[in-house]
Amino acid sequence: MEKTISRGIEKIMKKNRTYSYIYLVLWVTPLIFFVKDFFQISEIESLDYLEYFKLFKISLLQGVVSVFFSTIVALIPAYYMSYRKNTLTKILEGLIFIPFFFPTISTVVAFTLLFNLPFLRGFNILYSLKAIVFANVFYNSPIMIKYLSQGMRNIPRNVVEAAKIDGLNEIGVFFKIKLPLIFPQVFRGMFLVFIYTFASFGVVLALGGIRYSNFEVEIANTLLRDANFTKALVLGAFQFLFLIGINLLGELYSPYELEGDFQQKKVSIGVFIYSLVYLLLEFSIVLIGVFYGFYNYYTGQFSLEGFLKLFSSAFNSSYPVLEGIRNSLIMASITPIFVILFTYLLLKNFTKVSSAVVFSTMGFSSAFLGIALIYLNILYDIKLWVLLIVGYFLITVPIAYSFMYQYVREFPKDILDLAKIDRLSPLKTFLLIECPILKNIFLGTYLQIFAIILGEFTISYSMQLGRDFPTIALVNYSLFSDKKLLEGAALSSVNIIIVLVLFYVSNKITEKE
């Protein structure tokens, strides 16, 4: 009897892991073809490892500095959010759309226009480490606000009160009590900020230039410019292993089980003003991209000239704006369907292997994935749009996994048990029970993945699809590179408005749950 039960459990576990392995195979397959044909062990000895060490130092510097300043900048707004619930708090929470949904090229356009303003031009910020750090802090500080504020809200009130009885002031309570308790959770936020900075592509490429290339930019340049495939493979492997190693450090810090009640209390006027100024600065960068779409940078007047030129036939003969918008909308409409269905199946067949496989892929180079996919096109003449869907699918599954995890994994077991009693098949259970209940979550996830794909840049750039299958991000980058700031700002504003609307609608839909 025991052997029969253990065999049954073994079969279930094997079935559970299937979807994790499918996802892993989808990642590995394009890489195998590329590595098999281009990786030469004999070339490893000729590689300049001193150059790699310098590249690692600049990548590490960008990551560490960005994490440090993102955390420092986020401390006070997070403190404010942990003790206040009002309109300002709600808007601060909404800033989380920036690191996940705000298009990279829109950020590049906004900071380029900002640093070219007369009173900032003299500081020579553009094409420097300062420009990269400013952009990364803008992008990633909302992540730290989210993790810090959630951690502080969950600290039990009696722990804080006991510390104050022992004579600690507010600052002492934060550094000696709150920070150690929330550190495991905050470490996850720091890891996200680090990985987004260390593996940043568009920001470093456009705002830092070749001098400040990190691993991701160097991988793309090595593949597209030098065609040194062995070097690119070594760089990609090192980046992957290094980021996985950083991620595993998080396992050393087990999170504390904290369930504190929200405690609203007064905060100083200084904390309020700082939080408000921070909010205005973040939104100013977002709105710069929209503002300059309607403002002529050269004449100093408001006009629709950028939009009129952008959508004119003559302009589209040189820059495929309309084709890029059409392609991006099609890709963003189709891909989330596959992502959501697959992620649902992955979560329904969840094991510890699932999270390990899904999140480990975040450390792999998107630039290298793009090159591997285009190589499949060369070998087997697979349609570019199909390969692009595969690329978008692979990079957005971890995001959908995070969004849907709580709702799918914690679906009421008693309802599912009733479905089994009624002998409903898994498909009927999904269609008649789970889908109607989770429809808002699915729709919200669909819109969020849609917004992410609309602004994706790294894969399409690495695949060099500018002529054969242009996207919004690629066309916008071409406009920016050719100093078409007026038209670039107009296209960027269109993208930003679409993303903002999608994020707002998806949040409203998800809140209904």
Percent in helix: over 70%
Profile the largest sheet.
Answer: 2 strands, antiparallel
Strand order of the largest sheet: 1-2
| Average pLDDT taken over every residue | 84
The total of helices stands at 24
Assembly context of the chains: single chain
* DSSP E strands, number: 2
What global shape is seen?
Answer: globular
Element pattern in H and E: HHHHHHHHHHHHHEEHHHHHHHHHHH
* CATH top level assignment of the largest domain: Mainly Alpha
- Report the β-strand fraction as a percent range: under 5%
State the fourth-level CATH superfamily of the largest domain.
MetI-like
Distance between the termini: 43 Å
CATH topology grouping of the largest domain = MetI-like fold
Q: What would your notes on this structure say?
A:
- It is a single chain.
- The chain has 513 residues and is mainly alpha-helical.
- It folds into two domains: 1-39 and 302-513, MetI-like fold; 67-291, MetI-like fold, CATH 1.10.3720.10.
- It is 78% helix and 1% strand.
- It is built from 24 helices and two strands.
- It has helices spanning 2-38, 49-83, 87-94, 97-101, 104-115, 118-121, 129-153, 157-165, 170-198, 202-208, 215-226, 229-249, 269-294, 305-310, 313-318, 321-348, 352-360, 366-380, 384-409, 413-421, 426-455, 458-462, 472-481, 485-511; strands at residues 295-296, 301-302.
- The protein has a two-stranded antiparallel ribbon with strand order 1-2.
- A hairpin with a 4-residue loop joins strand 1 and strand 2.
- The longest helix is centred in the first third of the chain and has 37 residues, at 2-38.
- The radius of gyration is 24 Å and the shape is globular.
- 41% of the residues are buried.
